[in-house]
Amino acid sequence: MYKIVKKEELAKNIYLMDVYAPRIAASAKPGQFIIVIADKYSERIPLTICDFDEKKGTVQIVVQAAGGSTEKLCSFEEGEYFRDFVGPLGRPSEFLDEDIEELKKKKILFVAGGVGTAPVYPQAKWFFEHGIDVDVILGAKSKDFVILEDKLKSVSKNLYIATDDGSYGFKGMVTDKIVDLIENENKHYDQCVSIGPMIMMKFVCLTTKKYDLPTTVSLNPIMVDGTGMCGACRVNIGGVTKFACVDGPEFDGHLVDFDSAMKRQRQYKDKKEEKSVKDHVCTFDKAIEKQHRDIEEERHVDDVKIIKAKDRFKKIPVAEQDPDVRNKNFKEVSYGYTAQEAVIEASRCLNCKNPQCVKGCPVSIDIPGFIKEIANGNFEQSAKVLSLYTALPAVCGRVCPQESQCEAKCVLLNKGDAVSIGKLERFSADYSREHNIVLSEKPRLNGHKVAIIGAGPAGLTCAGELAKMGYSVKIFEALHQAGGVLVYGIPEFRLPDDVVESEVQNLLNLGVEIENDVIIGRTITVEEIMDQGFEAVFIGSGAGLPTFMNIPGENLNGVYSANEFLTRNNLMRSFEEDYDTPINVGKKVAVIGGGNVAMDAARVAKRLGSDVSIVYRRTETELPARLEEVHHAKEEGIKFEMLTAPIEITGTEDGWVKSLTCVRNELGEPDASGRRRPVKIEGSEFVEEFETVIMALGTSPNPLISHTTKGLDINKWGCLVADENGATTREGVFAGGDAVTGAATVILAMGAGKTAAESIDKYIRKM
């Protein structure tokens, strides 16, 4: 928790706050920003840093109450705590990398407006501390809205106040003052830095361009999440799409497409839809109980005899919510096996002496072993067998592609259905959670420390394996909640949060420590972690940077990356009335892509009340999504437009999605993936109206860690280079999961984490 140690009202609805955040205070630099989450129900709000004091451990922010979320922030008083305070984020001001002596030869002009005055101060202060004079223009509507005047006066050579109404200082806009200084006072400047409202920065750039005055602007106002995982802050810079949070927030103002940026800025202000998705079944839990009871009464004990006699090759089906009910709520789709169903299904297993299913499992679970215990009714022992091999059994049982891994190797497939290994794994893990079974005791420590970066599947698995060996393990996680893609990427109806929380708690019980809100490469670096006595570091930071098609219209409002769309719903719970994070979804939604993420995004949009179409460039045979997810999507009313590829998104005059122009494809020769390549059919263009377009085209690793860690090589796709044992090109640093492979499955990330843990153990033992 982050305590507010000082609060001061600067102007009406504008407040300065000092927040105790020592890690951020120690690593913050001018030009950077932070993410604030006020409480459990609040959205993630990016705010630029006004000042920082390493000795006091405080970071200063300025907040203007301009909407529900910022009003909530401003309502907090001294002595109260923000739930989360994350950073520093973004690239520091470009001046910090320039030669000081060369900077002293330049004349710098800062132009600040509104709360944009706050981030100007630390930059002007930096120049002052390095003996460089700067001029500052501070703009406001009137004298009552002039803020931080004394602070800026103390660090600038000349401070010029400009008010719209002339109630204080120069009468006119900041642009008028720029013209006045250059033309009337014969001032010459080599560089201008402008920070404030988007419209102000636009006209400052139009003004400075007339004088060939290079101008840097901060695009913090269009930021949504700030960590690089949503893609919502994309902006056109000189014809190239950039992300304000990763590539910025500072850019060459003369190259910024301000008009499209301002339209994007309004996407959550112009449309405020009611969160109308509710559970329409009042007696939902009772309905589940009755359905299970009816199933049990129908099968009873006699079914065991039938299965053993002649139905060994037919699996026990799992009860699910009715499609027309579940597509209106976020409750879990599958009810899971009852105890009796689990015993019956487990009894189908042949307990092979040479089990091929184990070879198909990336973490090599003793599958016959845990299933045998279920068949014998020893549910607690089954969970304990699982705990020897996996840290996330309840997760794997729900989201892993068993049909292409362990179950694909089951010998029963030769005559019928494979054993439902995933559903049995889920049953065993759920039984353990519901009955509070202690799966393993906290081991004796061996005196060695290992750091894990990222609390996703790879990081959690690596941490669990090392903790069992006796290592002191600490996980550094960027988000405010542990779980990584398990909590921000997978919807509640597939993987409930309480399931992930339980798995994480099992790790905490082993002694694993998790520190949230730490951005590696900004809050702290890999080198600094190793300097703290950690003998090895595992990087399991995932692949959270979204991919776009680079087609016309992608920057329109209503175009989401699947990452942003799912994060708003899954992590920040925009679908629940009590939560503040907004989401705007049109009546007709197109989801571009055919993987599991595309299915998740489509099914979420359906639950938000939209008519949803999956647009995929190949046929259904080539869909990379799990068969179960495709089946569920179809049941829930999702439409599939196959052999179709978008080529342009058309917008309305006010910058919102209006339609999607597509072409039809036919399949040609196989490409590098082994799938037949889609080939455009000439003259097949057509237009279909949509109000929302969700890009589910995959993700890549965020470059922040690789860019800030010496000796850490990456490949041409931006993935960390690691050998088969997880060792990177940097001594003592290991990596695995999506950070190495690019976007893949949860179970493959877990396998990489497990392999890396074994390698780290060998590495430390040899030291």
UniProtKB/TrEMBL annotation:
Matching Gene3D superfamilies: Alpha-helical ferredoxin (1.10.1060.10), FAD/NAD(P)-binding domain (3.50.50.60), Nucleotide-binding domain of ferredoxin-NADP reductase (FNR) module (3.40.50.80), Translation factors (2.40.30.10)
Q: What is its EC number?
A: 1.4.1.13, 1.4.1.14
Alphabetical keyword list: Oxidoreductase
Family matches, as PROSITE patterns: 4FE4S_FER_2, FAD_FR
State any single GO MF term.
Answer: glutamate synthase (NADPH) activity
Q: Which InterPro entries match?
A: 4Fe4S_Fe-S-bd (IPR017896), Dihydroorotate_DH_Fe-S-bd (IPR019480), DPD_II (IPR028261), FAD-bd_FR_type (IPR017927), FAD/NAD-bd_sf (IPR036188), FAD/NAD-binding_dom (IPR023753), FNR_nucleotide-bd (IPR039261), Helical_ferredxn (IPR009051)
Q: Which residues form the 4Fe-4S ferredoxin-type domain?
A: 340-370
Q: Which domain of life is it from?
A: Bacteria
* EC main group: oxidoreductase
> FAD-binding FR-type domain location, by residue?
1-95
**Family annotation (NCBIfam families):** gltA (TIGR01316), PRK06222.1 (NF004862), PRK12778.1 (NF009414)
Write down what this protein is called.
Answer: Glutamate synthase (NADPH/NADH) small chain
